[in-house]
Write a structure and sequence with these properties.
By secondary structure, the chain is mainly beta. The chain contains two helices and 35 strands. The strands form six sheets. Strands 13, 14, 16, 17, 18, 19, 20, 21, 22 and 25 form a ten-stranded antiparallel sheet that branches. Strands 1, 2, 3, 5, 8 and 9 form a six-stranded antiparallel sheet that branches. Strands 4, 6, 7, 10, 11 and 12 form a six-stranded antiparallel sheet that branches. A hairpin with a 1-residue loop joins strand 2 and strand 3.
Length: 482
């Protein structure tokens, strides 16, 4: 693995805040270290005599402590490095004070030849490793950087809201809607012997949930909220933090996963959930808000845990077949008031097995078309199928809408895919961090199983999501490439 994951994007000067008096041009490098590399430009129209730079950052695993690598020096006027550790218990910052630096209007300041102000790494002696990243999370701007003059007046950016908590929004296999959120997957190795994990009620294709060979995968985008949006119905999201946003209540499900060679894991933000022999998943429950003005509380590309149906909101029920032998499943309601427990149980419940209710948004015509016409086999229900917008169904005799491709397997040499109708396919191989590692296509394929050759030379071993677009529909599958 490379020292630094080059996931950061170049940030142009024009992408600052509206009232910025300084411009910040550069990018955050993050991975096993966190390195903000940028330069600043004074566009205030006046000379600035000294300034302070604040850089906020955090770890995917909040329990890991950072340290400042002091080997990188800033040219002339060495800044006073005021290193703030464990700010608000989970977010850290570095403050650099340039009290002798004069920056005239139109002038730029570069700290050194590669514009690297400092380097953060995991504190020596810790057994854990983690990924360091900017806070708040953003892939399209330097929102983690704040610049003040020596009197505390803001010259660039704004200090982040420390009350925000991270949660997981169920998402398809394409990309996060905002472009800023971190994506990941939670894999539960359910019972292997005669596994009965499945979508047993409602729609067979909820957003962001895949049942594959009896195991369950939750695909998500990590978003940060100080308060989760209210809805006309109760709902829940997976927690990725030490607590839930202020208007929600914490719930934990202990999954007694398969005892024979358990393979539970997450790729992405895992804290504070745990993945070992068994799985502990934390949720944030949001009670219905009587004054809610919106039909769906979050981006309509996201799925939610909820027990609700309407013309536009499509319901599914997921059964997770947990370990059959000496089952140790349990629920813990933590901060949830007694009056909310019955509402929570309508969304998620179960004893030896677990039942999750899920919802997604569909426009009304597409929802009716899918509900009436899509017939899905048990094999195809292992894939995520995202139907394109369908036209209203005129009569009950209308032909079924197209069925997505079934992904059979992926090797270094070929992708095996089964098509119900002849046609073309477009294939993408996406890493758990959202990076596209490979894209290829094939034309004029025949109905049945097709093997499509591809070049895997530049793709490292690891977990990926392979998606296949066919007949306007997308199928996805979690794969391990060796």
């Amino acid at each position: 693995m490379k020292k630094i994951l080059l996931l950061a994007l170049m940030v142009l000067a024009s992408m600052g805040f509206a009232a910025d008096k300084f411009q910040v041009v550069g990018r955050n490098y993050f991975g096993s270290t966190f390195e903000p590399r940028f330069y600043i430009k004074n566009v205030s129209g006046r000379t600035v005599n000294g300034f302070k730079i604040y850089a906020y950052y955090a770890a995917l695993d909040y329990s890991v402590e950072p340290e400042l690598d002091g080997s990188y020096e800033i040219k002339d006027d060495p800044a006073k490095k005021d290193y703030k550790h464990d700010l608000e218990g989970r977010v850290h910052k570095v403050r650099l004070i340039f009290d002798n630096t004069v920056l005239k209007n139109g002038e730029e300041y570069h700290p050194n030849t590669d514009n690297r102000f400092f380097v953060i790494r995991t504190k020596a002696g810790q057994k854990k490793t983690t990924t360091w990243h900017e806070f708040p999370e953003s892939r399209t701007s330097m929102k983690n950087i704040v610049i003040e003059d020596l009197n505390g007046n803001i010259l660039y950016g704004e200090h982040p809201d420390m009350n925000k908590k991270r949660v997981a929004m169920l998402n398809s296999l394409i990309s996060c809607p905002s472009g800023n959120a971190y994506d990941g997957v939670i894999h539960i190795d359910a019972e292997n012997t005669r596994s009965d994990s499945k979508f047993d009620k409602g729609d067979k294709h909820p957003i962001g949930v895949v049942v594959n060979n009896g195991d369950v995968n939750f695909y998500y985008c990590a978003e940060s909220y100080s308060k989760l949006p209210g809805a006309k119905f109760n709902y829940a999201v997976i927690s990725l933090d030490d607590a839930c946003p202020v208007n929600s209540y914490r719930v934990k499900r202990h999954h007694d996963a398969d005892d024979s060679k358990p393979n539970n894991y997450t790729n992405g933000i895992d804290w504070a959930n745990s993945f070992g022999k068994d799985v502990d998943l934390y949720f944030c429950f949001v009670p219905a808000a009587s004054n809610a003005q919106v039909d769906y509380p979050v981006d309509k590309k996201y799925g939610l845990f909820a027990n609700y149906e309407s013309d536009n909101i499509i319901f599914s029920r997921l059964k997770v077949d947990d370990e059959d032998w000496s089952n140790g499943n349990s629920w813990w309601y933590s901060t949830a008031a007694e009056k909310y427990k019955s509402d929570i149980k309508k969304i998620m419940d179960g004893s030896d097995n677990t039942y999750y209710r899920l919802v997604k948004w569909e426009n009304a015509s597409a929802a009716k078309a899918v509900a009436k016409n899509v017939v899905v086999s048990a094999e195809q229900s292992s894939n995520v199928n995202v139907p394109a917008a369908a036209k209203p169904v005129a009569t009950a005799a209308a032909k079924p809408v197209a069925i997505a491709a079934a992904i059979k397997g992926l090797t270094r040499e070929a992708l095996s895919v089964e098509l119900k109708t002849a046609g073309d396919v477009e294939v993408s191989l996406v890493g758990i961090n959202g990076k596209v590692f490979a894209k290829f296509s094939a034309q004029n394929l025949q109905r049945g199983i097709n093997n499509i050759n591809w070049n895997s030379t530049n793709v490292p071993a690891g977990h990926y999501i392979v998606s296949v677009k066919h007949n306007g529909m997308i199928s996805g599958k979690n794969v391990l490439l060796k």
